[in-house]
Design brief:
The chain is an alpha/beta fold. It contains ten helices and 14 strands.
Length: about 300
Amino acid sequence: MDKLEAMNAFSKVVALGSYAEAARSLGLTRSAVSKAVMELEHLLGARLLDRSTRRVSPTEAGLAYYEQCIDIVARVEETELRVSRLHDEPRGVLKINAPVSFGVLHLAPAVAEIIGTHPDLRIELALSDRFVDPIEEGVDVTVRIAQLTDSSLVARRLAPVRRVIVGSPDHLARFGTPASPEDLAHRPCLSYGHTTTLPRWHLTRDGAAIDVAVGAAMCSNNGDVLRVAALAGRGLTLLPTFLVGPDVAAGRLVTVLDAFPAPDLGLYALYAPNRYLAAKTRVFIDALVARFGPRPPWDRF
């Protein structure tokens, strides 16, 4: 029996005036309780209890020790209760990192709804397109769009992320609709990246991966920039539907080469492995799964 358990056993003996009653209250044997008290007396070098055939009563030293014991045990129980509640009720600060475009368009409304539902929860949301390791940077959850590789992190899939090739009706009227991926090499294209030198798009043909060269009208490391250029009729672009789905639904952009789709990505919540997942993290991730799901709203066109 450890020291805290022995202190609790001693406190029960004093409160109930009996080894037997204390043992019954704690679900222990009488000998185990008696041994715990003797170990405390040996450790302290003082007699804590006066024992008689009828009743056990504390000595002067035992009474002083008892008052400290009940305070310590109560504080430990209160602390354990508070920690336990952190895993039952979402409260405290939840630190989240997410990509910029997705964070502004879709995560921000979700976060606003979550904090309205859980007033004891405070959220710190940082947006960045670089990968953030939640363990190294002290983040509770990292939301990422990717094809995941093996990782020491726990990953929960929130939703699929489809990508489509789109152009404006005006652009297609001027240049025509491409019939095959090879036609893209002769078309003004708007590519995600840092250089217009030899841009290539990864697509599929009959389920097999293909790599196709595309024309280079402009490039950007931000999908919103490419979307604006596409809406202005400046070229075709390959973008996720969470950016251009509403434009396709409204007819502002038109999908092309649908028979040659880009490999799907996934929207994931990444967090450090933990046997006891905090309620704040669990509630946040569950809310995103419910909000986005297997057929997210941006794919309904």
